[in-house]
Amino acid sequence: MAVSASERQPGDRYLDSFREFEARLKELDIDDIPLLLGMAYIDISYLDHAVFADEECDLEERIHNVLFPSVAFSYSDFKRLAPEATGDILTDKKWRNRWCDRQMMWAHVSNSRDVFVTSDNNFKKIERTESFEGVKVRTPEEAVALL
Question: pTM score > 0.90 for this model?
Fold first, then answer.
């Protein structure tokens, strides 16, 4: 998923460009896998590798509310409500990480993918939610067994 480029990288840093992400994919020999695009957000997304919101934007908030019910959806609300908020989107790692997670699920659902593969058990919550009956979340081991 293209939104993976916006996640915190090893060494507690963020990538300076999408080209760095593409180089990493090439290094891992997985640069031929199609990238699913997340929604464009100023200061977080690589705008050339994102889609602009339309009627699907409520889907993102519904995903967020299932996965992170105790974390504010918007960054402005997070800054206002969370004591740990710094006011700098680059250093507010908790909110940004959750943004990346919800974007990955949004891209998965919006692109009608079959199986969402992750080691993060928090995503299992979405399978048990009424409006997301078609979403299948599997660990890497479970996904391999499906092949």
Answer: no
